[in-house]
Amino acid sequence: MLTEHRQIKMNWPRSDSCGVSSFTDQEVTFLKQLWAAELLVHGCSVIIKKRLWPRLASRWDVFWDEKFARVDRGSCQVFVSFPKRAPGFLTVNYLRAGHETEYRTLAHAALLVEQIAIARGCQAIVCQVISQRVTPRLMHRWKYVPHAKSLGNGHFIRRLDC
């Protein structure tokens, strides 16, 4: 459901299939117009909000959120962007989750990010992990591999088969 061309509200996943066909044509059009977005995932409920600029993270943001989670219980927020200097890439700039967020909700968010990248025709998803709560083992489980060693630890990439 499209609301004022600024956000999409939907249930996710819609079916057992993981194909891009689970987005409607109107939703794909909305997704292709995004430069930056905020995804709010609460169980199977998803809201995708258009942002005017990307939300960037710092170590202070991560520390603050780990001590004083400001996210609704059981939900997570994912801030993504499509850098103009790197067409074909989706960057996960920031992920904020509450202490009571279930693994299932995070898995839904990861699947949603992947499907958005596929719908946009992206070649890869890149991110930097700062939090100690996200382990390399979890990133490997979600098919992310270490990337850009010259920038330090915590940089991951997931190449997509489009």
Query: What form results from the Cα inertia axes?
Result: globular
**CATH fold node name:** Aminopeptidase
What gyration radius follows from the Cα positions, in whole Å? 15 Å
Question: Biggest sheet: strands, sense, closure?
Answer: 9 strands, mixed
Helix-strand pattern, N to C?
A: EEHEEHEEHEHEE
Query: What's the total number of strands?
Result: 9
Distance separating the two termini: 26 Å
Number of individual domains: 1
Number of helices in the DSSP assignment:
4
CATH architect. name? 3-Layer(aba) Sandwich
User: Which class do the helix and strand fractions yield?
Assistant: alpha+beta
What percent of residues are in strands? Answer: 25-35%
Order of strands in the sheet with the most strands?
A: 1-2-4-3-5-6-7-9-8
CATH class assignment: Alpha Beta
Percent range of helical residues: 10-25%
Query: Low-confidence stretches at least 5 residues in length (pLDDT < 50)?
Result: 17-21
Indicate the mean pLDDT: 81
